[in-house]
């Protein structure tokens, strides 16, 4: 008989929390704590040192990504702690944040709809508890089709120059700010335009398009 997995569960919706507790108990998970806020999750996980944390992403007190941020905090404290986060919607940036915690092992990002597929959901929890990584198929599709960062090819200096262009500065002003020659700035600007795929035409229009690309890439 496999060892019992000790679980701390965090879900602010009372009925769903009770349903998850009953479901997990039915499949021999030991729910050592079931809480309704991110702060209670932090306390419970530190106190009970569970094998697995299952948490909603959006939790009180902030009602935004408090559950996720708490899970990442716990993973920083205990890299071996398995964590599954549940979300109402596909939000690929949350999956990326979770995968960046620890070494990316023992983590799961699942949509809440998957809970209804009981057998599969339980197997996914067991897989994460065993050190595996489980990402919801819808999230995987979103990650695979996520638009490429248009600024990814720019060097640090080129990003800096583009940021100053976005402030409305001329090449001469940028040169003074960075303590380089205007010719050096012109070269950086040319590289930026090439890497962003902005072919030579009206230079003013290209600068506007480059600024739009910069602004769209900001978090």
TrEMBL record:
Record PANTHER family: TRANSCRIPTIONAL REGULATORY PROTEIN NARL-RELATED, TWO-COMPONENT RESPONSE REGULATOR
GO process terms (BP): phosphorelay signal transduction system; regulation of DNA-templated transcription
Superkingdom of origin organism: Bacteria
UniProt GO MF annotations: DNA binding
Domain Response regulatory residues, every copy: 6-127
Protein name stated in the entry: DNA-binding response regulator, NarL/FixJ family, contains REC and HTH domains
Alphabetic keyword roster: DNA-binding, Phosphoprotein, Transcription, Transcription regulation
Modified residues (4-aspartylphosphate): 56
Annotated Pfam families: GerE, Response_reg
InterPro entries: CheY-like_superfamily, NreC/VraR/RcsB-like_REC, Sig_transdc_resp-reg_receiver, Tscrpt_reg_LuxR_C, WalR-like
Organism from which the protein derives: Micromonospora siamensis
UniProt domain HTH luxR-type: residue ranges: 147-217
